[in-house]
């Protein structure tokens, strides 16, 4: 426990110093209120609302494949890369050294040598531990490589504003999105603490243009290049009769971001079930209230977060500061036991879901560039819900009575980290 104090104090100092440019009405404790008639998640009215508040167009006729953990995700990712014939765009927040990093780099280099336009964009902070020999190999192979927002002395307050997006788009026709970073921790099948639990998806159809747009937005800022033409933006035809999808992206700003407004709308419209998995869970009061309000109107609200193997203990402690209010309001909380759970998924009422890079914290809602894929499909939501149930079997539920009896030192640690929640 004592090890948490230096990190907590340091983060509190950062919170005091950091970007005050993003302060807005949330500083006065204001939350949200849904105004208008009741609407159901997944209904036409709900989709019109999500489209209006996020500016993300609805796309129909897409195919989606659910991928669980590295044993499924990385083979699909490498196969998708190696299928590229015209263009390959790859964006990741985190890229570390290791075997899988070398395999991904080899696939990118192979396609560049074959004459494919390969563009790689990595966040300059998240990829700081990357083997720079891989960067040189990419450049020598013809990969166009760029860092997103390299730290600058005159822009120290933007250090918090990273791109947290994880995207792969090939030939403008197939795309991948989810929570996986490029590091050996994501390999395997969550079988032990050294191999993490995560979720990714692969999609085909008109929705891929939204993924391409999320990449192109960050690429434009980093390089000044506008990606156009059939290699990047081909005519996309429906490939199935599946339901509606949206790619919702947001970026650091003054005011409420797209994903923040989207998540509030979805939570407020929940009527039966709400299953949230979040690698970093440190909600501000407005979202604690939204979750407890849902539980009190009869929604089965369950939240799955990391347990003892969290890679960011300070975020875990800040999130735990809200457990008592959540539990008292009827929200059920589970901590994943075997390893770090890094997935970011949300399903509501068994008909609508979100899969992407968005965590349930202020860093995702307000400070970083994020992207999530929204899917309106009872069939796909069922697959996510089934995986959620399997994850709960490997988790420990937090019970209110036991939680209220936790040691005083734990309470103090949570209180200290809570003051820095805005920067987490």
Q: What do these coordinates show?
A:
The chain is an alpha/beta fold and 424 residues long. The chain has 2 domains: 20-58 and 244-423, Endonuclease Chain A (Endonuclease, Chain A); 63-223, Endonuclease Chain A (Endonuclease, Chain A, 2-Layer Sandwich). Helices cover 37% and strands 21% of the residues. It contains 14 helices and 17 strands. The protein has an 8-stranded mixed sheet with strand order 8-16-14-13-9-11-12-17, sandwiched between helices. It has a 7-stranded mixed sheet with strand order 1-7-6-5-2-3-4, sandwiched between helices. Strands 10-15 form a two-stranded parallel ribbon. Helix 4 links the parallel strand 2 and strand 3. Helix 2 (44-54) runs antiparallel to helix 7 (258-269). The two termini are 20 Å apart.
